[in-house]
Structure of Glycine dehydrogenase (decarboxylating):
Amino acid sequence: MTRSFADRHIGPDRDELARILDVVGVGSLDELATAALPASILDGSGLEVLPPAATEHEVLTELAELAHSNTVATSMIGLGYYDTLTPPVLVRSLLENPAWYTAYTPYQPEISQGRLEALLNFQTMVSDLTGMEVANSSMLDEATAAAEAMTLLRRAGKSKSARLLIDDDLFPQTKTVLSTRAEPLGIEIVSADLSGGELPEGEFFGVLVQVPGASGRIVDWRPVIEAAHERGALVAVGADLLALTLITPPGEQGADVCFGTTQRFGVPMGFGGPHAGYLSVHTKHARQLPGRLVGVSVDADGNKAYRLALQTREQHIRREKATSNICTAQVLLAIVAAMYASYHGADGLLAIARRVHARAAAIAVGLDGVVVHENFFDTLLVRVPGGAESVVAKAKSSGINLRLVDADHVGIACDEATTEAHVTAVLESFSTGLPSGVSDPGGVPSVTGGSIETRTSEFLTHPAFTSHHTETAMLRYLRRLSDKDIALDRSMIPLGSCTMKLNATAEMEAITWPGFARVHPYAPVEDAPGLLRVITDLEGWLSAITGYDQVSLQPNAGSQGEYAGLLAIRRYHLDRGDTHRDTCLIPSSAHGTNAASATMVGLRVEVVKCRENGDVDLDDLRAKIADHADRLACIMITYPSTHGVYEHEVAELCALVHDAGGQVYVDGANLNALVGLARPGRFGGDVSHLNLHKTFCIPHGGGGPGVGPVAVRSHLAPYLPGDPLEQGSHAVSAAKYGSASILPITWAYIRMMGADGLRKATLTAIASANYIARRLNEHFPVLYTGENSMVAHECILDLREISKRTGVTVDDVAKRLADYGFHAPTMSFPVAGTLMVEPTESENLAELDEFILAMTAIRAEIDQVAAGVWPVEDNPLRGAPHTAACLVGEWDHPYSREVAVYPQGLDPARGKVWPAVRRIDGAYGDRNLVCSCPPLDAY
Ligand SMILES: *Cc1c(COP(=O)(O)O)cnc(C)c1O
């Protein structure tokens, strides 16, 4: 038989599916659809606009043509995006390696030590280079990092002022995103040329400057930092990490915060992304950092172990009081950047920085007299009155993209890939554009650029950055780290709400092709017809799938899609004169990002109760609507709910809100339960975000990248985010199409599945979740079910009663699963003391059964504890996970070594996963916060 791509993507084959459906108690997938979904929303239309399914090889050919139609020019546009030479060992063993890209966010640290170590290296790299003590493990891009820096300054500072002062020479896209994010929070942005060291009159809570500036100018910001501090304002400096190998880092100049991007450390420009932004602070502000922070702690045997630190700051726990809504970050790209630094080491980075600077200096010498700023690192601003357009056109004809600043100015940025030939070609493009009286390009130099090397402190001295400079060493380091982790290449990752499905190789292949990877986000549009075609196709396909009218692919994660969608709602109300609509209703079961995003757009969060059966309590909703009447802006629901159930009253819920003048936001993270079966844009939603890194096969990358498109009905379309290069466009990220280079993944998925494949995937995911629910119910009761006792694409296993009776906790079960070689399901979300299992359509019956077997065996172990065979404090569950090292030497536990590591029910033929550390003490690490590589003597 010839197998289609859908047959490869969907785990269970025909016979297996029949067995699954049999247990579920339905005769066919169609019958399952009718049994599980409310008839009122069941709607198979929309997908007819999708092209018929193509094979893997057909799709690769189509993508190759699209990639070839793009022009890979020599990019010298700059503005925060630079060409970079990714070491091939990092391309093959990291960026294109499923052991790295299919991993999940390291919430189960015992089986995530590899990527946690890599992220700790990232944090160390950023803190070293910026002269700060603490960095988080990545922001979404430089512009959003600047916005997070802005709110951090406001949180951390003592000033009561609502004014932020920014230097004129910030990147234009940074300014746009700052104003998008400032406006709903009532922050007023004042822009001025601060290079003279003077501040404008008045009080400010913070000051934002950048080095080098958009113009390439290097300013010593010390006087501004001192003046700001005297005024009671804190200071954030945007800084280029490569430049910081040469110039004094802002942390040593008294800056409070540093932000920027790590793109040029080996991560291709990708027409805008993805790449890792960064944020770093001094120790006293560590608790104010948004996003994920890796820290060092100890395990049950007292050994050093890594885990996410200070998680109580995050939206999962703090919700509307969280420091930020950021959830999915840019882990995979942060790791690439960290490994780039490890591979080159301090001396290698210095050599690259000096070469880049020398190329810029050579151009400056050639253009003596027209270079505007004498102090530069890699970027020059050149004055050519009236001649800028012709210079840019001339350069373009020799394959080089320069930056057209205005009619009189050209920007030139050098990078790691700039050669002497490029320098010559750039100078030639100026040969006719130079005003008379200027020395002949190539004539006697008088501008040298001076020495910019003011940095005196060492950096990257830790063994992480001195031990892996050969390819053999790097190859083995990457392997050693990834061997410590459970990713999808080892076993299923049954994470409710996170949809860890297959990331097919054919979907992944194109992302590193130069035609997609090496295009600058601000390149002329005629350079990118292939990319734009992928983008328009996807916008159309996702509109059809969701039933909305328009889609923006700009948001870099689900949280950013939420932000963009809520912002659209806010602006819609304001435009209609509904200035009082400031209340956002959110059910108690919602994901933490919902409340955090609502707060960031200036909405007040009101929680709506859930009923005993998990559904939104419509009586409470009616009461809340009455209470807030004309203040109602919107409701944010998740569908199917985070309880894994298709609520039957969703249409009524939407109508109640609409009747009261509110808008309905449907969180689309659970779209894997809807594709091909129901469309949120048609059953009541006004706006949704989708998570392409969940439903649409972009891999999780160990915690990012993601893409969180926002989809709207036509009345909200005018409020979608605009072009970040246009001030006031309400852009939410630095690039118009966000993380454009990974969109081919989703494009390929939809193209290969076709309408029927997509629908079958959804139904198989629902079938598998119901199969697990039926088979595990007697061991771990399923908490919520809908009509006909059906769940949607995930199910919640309730351990609370078992825990109360036996003392065995969800933690114990989650960690014990690692001994069985499985990644734990989602723990204690959305209900504390439960596990949420989402098998997805990609797991075959054998793997589902293996997981069920492990869970059943664990239940039998719990019964042994209940029966008093093992004490609560010392049993294989509480002792889990078990390392190889813990078997050596003394063994004084009431269970054997065999039970510890080869428990009953574990098929030895599967291959044993050996966790690298034992149970980690998270609280210890939070009390003794260490967020960079510990010194050697700590090993
Ligand atoms: C994953 C998720 C989000 C957040 O998406 P990120 O990409 O991590 O920002 C929001 N809501 C729900 C229900 C989710 O599962």
About this structure: The radius of gyration is 28 Å.
